[in-house]
Amino acid sequence: xxxxxxxxxxKTKDINVYYDTVKVLNNINMEIEPNTVTAxxxxxxxxxxxxxxxxxxxxxxxxxxxxEGDVLLDxxxxxxxxxxxxxxxxxxxxxxxxxxxxxxxxxxxxxxxLRIQGVKDKQKLNEAAEQALVQAAIxxxxxxxxxxxxxxxxxxxxxxxxxxxxxxxxxxxILMDEPASALDPISTAKIEELxxxxxxxxxxxxxxxxxxxxxxxSDKTGFFYMGDLVEFGxxxxxxxxxxxxxxxxxxxxxxx
Amino acid sequence: xxxxxNEIDKIxxxxxxxxxxxxxxxxxxxxxLLGPDTELAEEIIFTEKRINALELTIDRYCENAIALYxxxxxxxxxxISMLKVNxxxxxxxxxxxxxxxxxxxxxxxxxxxxxxxxxINEMFDLAMEMMVAMEKGAREExxxxxxxxxxxxxxxxxxxxxxSKVISEYIKKDPNLIIQGFYLxxxxxxxxxxxxxxxxxxxxxxxxxxxxxFKHKKKKK
Lengths: 256, 221
What we know:
The complex is a heterodimer.
Chain A: E1 10-19, E2 22-32, E3 37-41, H1 48-54, E4 65-73, E5 76-77, H2 85-91, E6 92-95, H3 106-116, H4 122-135, H5 139-142, H6 155-168, E7 173-177, H7 185-198, E8 203-207, H8 211-217, E9 220-225, E10 228-234, H9 235-240, H10 245-251
Parallel strand pairs in A: 3-8, 3-9, 6-7, 7-8
Antiparallel strand pairs in A: 1-2, 1-4, 4-5, 9-10
Helix pairs in contact in A: 3-4, 3-6, 4-6, 6-7
Chain B: H1 3-34, H2 38-69, H3 73-105, H4 112-117, H5 120-140, H6 143-173, H7 178-210
Helix pairs in contact in B: 1-2, 1-3, 1-5, 2-3, 3-7, 5-6, 5-7, 6-7
């Protein structure tokens, strides 16, 4: 009997990244399975956010950015000449550290991506908005006020609205760059709970400075230090018995 | 040194103190029984209160460290292990107290032939040897030394297995020995359990130090 080969959602092969002459990522190889949450941890400047932004080509705008190696999404090279970056970003959504709703109504925020794609059918937009808001666990709080300005929502609600906006265009991967660092513990818990739920339908990568958040939400964790991927493996194993001393020192707060 | 490291040092010192105290209790229980020495037995019973108090203190230290500092990796393994080690040590203390209680209730001298036949001296000495090795292994964080305890424990088990047969033969010959036969049977069982608890302590230290799980591992045939 032939064994079915494991599907890999995201694969990076021998990735080196430079900003001008400075090398910020050094030979990173990582394989991410679908419907998993991968946490990227490490001190500031270690390269974790650069690595995250590679996956939807957000680094392309940074002057002096240059990369070597391949980034494969569903076995396709996302840096090939044939890649349409707009379509890639539809496939790979991103949620940022600070909630960044547009100064528009809640409804218009959620359907923004669909409108850009040219969707005009009102029923389709309504359905997509409701589905995304339900998935982002904010529907019950906003369903009666969809015309209200998104800026009137609390920080935690704004962040979930931004997640809904990302989900509305039906990505398969969601990148999160410290999505809860500006939120209070209750809103943070809601986002973490949401990440657990979203894992069923999406592949999630999250950059976090909060070790315990990485422990709570992720299946796999990658520890970056000075551009190297020092250790990558099961989160449970890494937090109970890391293989590398540097990882142990970092996660237990004895760094340096 | 960060705050958690200070807490861990404090817990380590308390656990080693507990270990030493329990070792002394066991050693005294041998002298109290074989003496017999009722005064020493009373002392053991009194000291048991100190062990119980120390157990509660160590539990509280560990719980606070987990609640306040959210430890991970080695720190977390240390705290999980020490909670279990603490409980095992307290049980060893209970066994020493149990033997001492028997001494205070003893109404007749122990039959020396039966004592020799059930190898109670050897049993005590082995248990003490294990206690000493456990304390040294824990103090030096020496997993090599701690691993040797598994073999020593099986020697205790061998003596334990023969106890019922040997004691029943003495009782058959002289039914008046029935009460002390029961007490000695229970003492041997206690010493065998001491060996089990020491083995548990060794397993917990190995988990903490080497992140290796030994519990319920079947022997390779």
